[in-house]
Amino acid sequence: xxxxxxxxxxxxxxxxxxxxxxxxxxxxxxxxxxxxxxxxxxxxxxxxxxxxxxxxxxxxxxxxxxxxxxxxxxxxxxxxxxxxxxxxxxxxxxxxxxxxxxxxxxxxxxxxxxxxxxxxxxxxxxxxxxxxxxxxxxxxxxxxxxxxxxxxxxxxxxxxxxxxxxxxxxxxxxxxxxxxxxxxxxxxxxxxxxxxxxxxxxxxxxxxxxxxxxxxxxxxxxxxxxxxxxxxxxxxxxxxxxxxxxxxxxxxxxxxxxxxxxxxxxxxxxxxx
Length: 273
Hints:
Blueprint: E1 7-15, E2 18-27, E3 32-37, H1 46-56, E4 60-70, E5 75-78, H2 80-97, H3 105-109, E6 115-118, H4 124-185, H5 188-197, H6 201-217, H7 225-245, H8 249-269
Parallel strand pairs: 3-4
Antiparallel strand pairs: 1-2, 2-4, 5-6
Helix pairs in contact: 1-4, 4-6, 4-8, 6-7, 7-8
C-alpha cells in the first residue's frame, strides 16, 4: 500500500532531572529534506538523527525538533577564600583609619569573585541513548500517520482510474459507431482515409496499460510518488492524441473527463512518498 507524506510524531525524553520532548513533522516534498531544530551543543547528533529518519522515511520535508523543558537548576558557588580576604581587608582598613566596619552580607555578595552562578548544560552525548529511543517512537508515529494517509490516497486514485476506464470504453464504442456510420456514407477511398485518421486502438491500449501500471504502484509500500507522476504524464499524452485524432463532440467530452482525472492523479502523486 502506498504511503502519504504528511505526518506527526512525538516522544518524551527523561534522564534524571532532565526532561524534554522530540517532535517529528513531515509534509510533501520531491526529495528527502531534513531540517533540525536542536538545543545548543546538539549539532553533533544531526548525522545520527538523519540516519534514523532516513531509515523509515524516503521522501518528504522532515522537521525534527528537540526541546529541553526541564534541567537541573543553575548552581551557585560561594568563594569562601574570596570572602575571607575581603573581610580581613575590611577589618584591617577599619582599624587603620578608625572606620566603623558595618559591612553586610549583601555588600559581600556584590563584590567581584564572591558568588559565581554556574549554568548546567545538557550534554548531547549523555542524553543520546534516551533521545534515540524517543526519536524512534516519534518517527514510528509519523510513519503510522503517513500510512493512513496512503490508504485514503489509494482509494481516491483508484476511483479516478475506474472512471477513466469507463470513459475509455465510451470512446471506443463511440469510435466504432462513427466508423460504422462512415462506412455507409463514404466511398471506399474516403472511408479508408477516415478509418486511418480515426484509429485510436494504439492509444487506448496504452492508456489501459498505464491504468494497470498505476494500480500496481498503489500496492507498493514506497517510492511510488515519482513513478505515478510519470505515468500520469504519459496518460495525458495518449489522451491528447485521442482528442486530436477523433473530431467528435462525444469523444471530446470523454477526453476532457479523462484529462481532468489524470490531473487529479498528478496532484495526488505529489502527496505520495
